Amino acid sequence: MNLAELRRExxxxxxxxxxxxxxxxxxxxxWLGQAIAAELYDPTAATLATCTRDGKPSARIxxxxxxxxxxxxxxxxxxxxxxxxxTVNPHxxxxxxxxxxxxxxxxxxxxxxxxxxxxxxxxRSRPRGSQLGAWTSFQSEVISGREALEARLRDLEAKFxxxxxxxxxxxGGYRLKPEAIEFWQGRPNRLxxxxxxxxxxxxWIVERLAP
Length: 211
Known about the structure:
The protein is α+β, with helices and mostly antiparallel strands and 211 residues long.
C-alpha cells in the first residue's frame, strides 16, 4: 500500500464570511444540526486534546453533551488522565470532523468544571448501565483484567439493587470556554476555506486563514 497515493478531491460549496453568523457558537449549532440531519455516525464525537503541566500532549475522543454561550460541555471521570491534566493545565482543544460533509471545526480555550447540579442532571439522564459504569471504572488506572471490571459491576448492581444510582463524586462535567473557533470546509486543489473567530475583549473577530 502506497500511502502517498491515497488522496481525495474536495468539492463542497465554500465558506463566505458574510453568510456566516456573527456568533461562532450559533454557527457551530448550525453545522452540528446539519451533521445530525445527514445521519452521520456519532455526530457529537470530538477529539479532545489536553496537556500536562510541562506540555506533553494527549488526545482522545469524547462526546459533546452540551452547547451554550458559555461553551462546550463533556463528561468524564475527574481522576482520568484528561481530568488530571486539566487540573494542572486547564487549557484544551477540541476538533470535530465530519468527513462526509468535508468539514471540521477546531475549538481552543480554557476548561472549568460544570456545577454539581449540572453534573447531577446529566447523570440522571443517562441509561442505568452507564450510571453503573461511572462507578465501576477507575478510568485510566491499570487493572488486572476484564474480569476485575465485571466483578466490580456485579458488586455494584447488588449494592444499588433497583434503587436510584447517585452520581459518583469522582465523575462529572467540564466546559471548554472558547477563545478561538475555526470552521474548515474542504475545497478543490487543497485551497480549503478556513474562517476563524477569535475572542478579543469580549468581541468575536472574524478572520480568513490561508489553507
